[in-house]
Design a protein that fits this description.
The chain is an alpha/beta fold. It is built from 14 helices and 12 strands. Strand 4, helix 6 and strand 5 form a beta-alpha-beta unit. Bound molecules: pyridoxal-5'-phosphate.
Length: 374
């Protein structure tokens, strides 16, 4: 079955009670035991599991071609669970260009618990190989990366990880399984901020881990999920499965808009550079072509000018709301450095764009008027 069909099929829940076509929301925190003490429907207590979360977990695992899906209250809660599965003294290799909070989490929280980490340029296999130590347990990738849209070679890195007995995890939030399937490329774990494209409407927080195999790590992560309790509510799980039903059409249409906008901006004299893996000028275009079936709907632009001029562009744009986050139906723009803070390596003139579902011509016309006045 193709992913578009799977997205619909996997989010249906047969309802013996009323024949509802759309899954009901089960708000109950607790589930009845039978006379013999068993739980006839498999549910005990909502932190452990509930019907809406189970539907979501099964659906995303299927979309990513994994055996186990685990839902969390946010993307960061999912990332946290994976780091919590490691031990004091273990070592993690992370990208130097990544979702900002991922490295801050390691620096500010996990360093206190004795988890070591090294940030590397994930576009260089040699840099990754040089960072491997006997204690290295996990290579964490993000491709395309944040905010520079760098592409790392998932297959090559997963192979390297395997040779050294190291887990390979991929933050697949930006590509989504519509365009990229890291588990098929050899990764062990996929992480998602379902807050973004899965939810798709900027109205829920959620996170997901998908494991290729139901192994000891999967069991450990299940325990962490249930015991630490950073789980989505049934309503958020329901909204996420609702989002999955339109994921494919949204991501494809948004990507078509992003490609057109990237091409327009690349040719514009007020733009220094466009970072988008769908452009032949992208330094890792060939790897993107190899491992992605589409380039996604995120792009970053560096304008010819400084931070103040970059900020001015965000104010002149009428159809792009100045706000953080991404993956919703509405276009957003963000001056990333001022969000990340002064110590961030992100260029001053960089604007990160989440391209929405609006009409492509309107979006391009909006940029034309905003840049004309620069
Ligand atoms: C948003 C995001 C996260 C974090 O997800 P939250 O739901 O905000 O906790 C992690 N990685 C990437 C690439 C993201 O875009």
């Amino acid at each position: 079955m193709k992913i578009e069909t799977l997205a619909i099929q996997s989010t249906q829940m047969p309802d013996a009670n009323a024949g509802a076509v759309v899954a009901p929301i089960y708000l109950s925190t607790t589930f009845e035991r039978a006379a013999d003490g068993s739980y006839p429907h498999g549910f005990i207590y909502s932190r452990n599991d509930n019907p809406n979360r189970q539907l979501l977990e099964k659906s995303i695992a299927l979309l990513e071609n994994g055996q186990v899906g685990l839902a969390f209250a946010s993307g960061m809660a999912a990332t946290t669970a994976l780091f919590q599965a490691l031990k004091t003294g273990d070592h993690v290799i992370t990208p130097n260009d990544a979702y900002y909070a991922t490295n801050v989490l390691l620096e500010q929280i996990f360093a206190h618990w004795g988890l070591q980490f090294t940030k590397v340029d994930m576009t260089s296999l040699r840099a990754i190989e040089e960072a491997i130590r006997p204690e290295t347990k996990l290579i964490w990738l993000e491709s395309p990366s944040n905010p520079l849209l760098r592409i790392s070679d998932i297959q090559a890195i997963a192979t390297l990880a395997k040779q050294h007995g190291i887990y390979c995890a991929v933050d697949n939030t930006w590509a989504t399984p519509i365009w990229q399937k890291p588990l098929d490329l050899g990764a062990d774990i996929v992480m998602h901020a379902t807050t973004k494209y899965f939810g798709g409407h900027s109205d829920i927080l959620g996170g997901m881990l998908v494991l290729k195999e139901d192994n000891a790590l999967a069991q450990r992560l299940r325990d962490i999920q249930k015991l630490t309790g950073a789980v989505p509510s049934p309503f958020e799980a329901w909204l996420t499965t609702r989002g999955i039903r339109t994921l494919a059409v949204r991501v494809k249409a948004q990507t078509a808009n992003a490609q057109a906008l990237a091409e327009y901006l690349t040719a514009h004299p007020a733009i220094e550079i466009v970072h988008y893996p769908g452009l032949t000028s992208h330094p890792q275009f060939a790897i993107a072509q190899k491992q992605m079936t589409g380039a996604g709907a995120m792009l970053s632009v560096q304008i010819k000018g400084d931070a103040t001029q970059a900020m001015a562009v965000t104010q002149k744009l009428r159809l792009f709301t100045t706000a953080t986050s991404l993956g919703g139906v509405e276009s957003l723009i963000e001056h990333r450095k001022s969000v990340e803070g002064a110590q961030s390596p992100t260029p001053d003139n960089l604007l990160r764009v989440s391209v929405g579902l609006e009409n492509m011509d309107d979006l391009i016309a909006d940029w034309a008027q905003a840049l004309a006045s620069l």
